[in-house]
Structures are given as C-alpha cells and as structure tokens.
Amino acid sequence: MKYTNSIEIALPQAQVAQLLADPAKVAHWLRDIVFHEALNGPYGQVGSTSRVVFQSGKRQMECTETITRRDPADVTAIPAGAVVHFDREITAPGMTSVVRDRLTALTPESTRWESDSEFHFTTLPMRAMALLLPRMFRNQSQQHLEDFKAFAEHGTDVRDRTR
C-alpha cells in the first residue's frame, strides 16, 4: 500500500526542519507515542535506530525506526532552494513501512511537507486490516501532519487534547 500526504506550514523551512529533527519535541506533536528511545547512534542521523512504542486504545505497538536519509545532515544550514529529506524505515510485528518526507520552501515564511508512505504487511491479520481499512492508515498519517502543524504554528500539544 502506498500513498502521499501533504500540508502547508506557515513557518520557514529551516524552522520546520529543526522542529522535526528535535527528539525533545516529538511527544508534543506525535499522537499516541508512549516511548521513544535511541538504540544506537545520535537521534535522527543516518543509520541510527530507535525503539518507538505507540498506544492506541488498549493496544500497544512497539516498532524499530531506522533513519535511512537525512539531507542536508545539518538542518541549521539549509542551502537556498534545497529540499530537505527525512527518510526512515519502521518495522513492527506484521509490517514494515518506508516513509519519505520532503520539506520544500514555498516562500521565505511557508513550507510544504510532503510525506510518501509505503507499507508491506507480512501477516494475514495485518494484510486483512490494510485491505479492509486502507483509509485508516492515510488518515492517521494526515493527522500526524496536522498535529505537527498545530504544534509548530501555535504550540498546541497533542498530549493536552488526548488526556
């Protein structure tokens, strides 16, 4: 299953990239995250892996995230006209996903975040869920973008809305 989500954020590209790259900010905008722990390498650097735990209702899902691309590596010095890339592979029981994020400056004060997601399911229950509920995956990805936008632009913390 493949799909693309996007959103426009009313902030400069460098500011958006720095917020996305900051591990201390993830819990403020990534809904349902319980735990995020670096396993090896500095957070967000190519080749680094992290253990991530999500809670959805009474169900917990643990996955491993591996950063496969971060370009430019230093998001505090983005060349004019450059597109910022953050790519990662996420593995969990029954599935693997690849996410390719692009941040493009639309104006000096606005950024488009485009996110390509690709899922591969390895178990029958996960395949059935993807077949029966494909919109759930796309909608959840769009919700993450919208939550980030609300946090970045207004300081809205998802933890305040989900308690």
Automatic annotation (TrEMBL):
It comes from the Bacteria. Gene3D superfamilies: 3.30.530.20. Pfam families: Polyketide_cyc2 (PF10604). This is SRPBCC family protein.
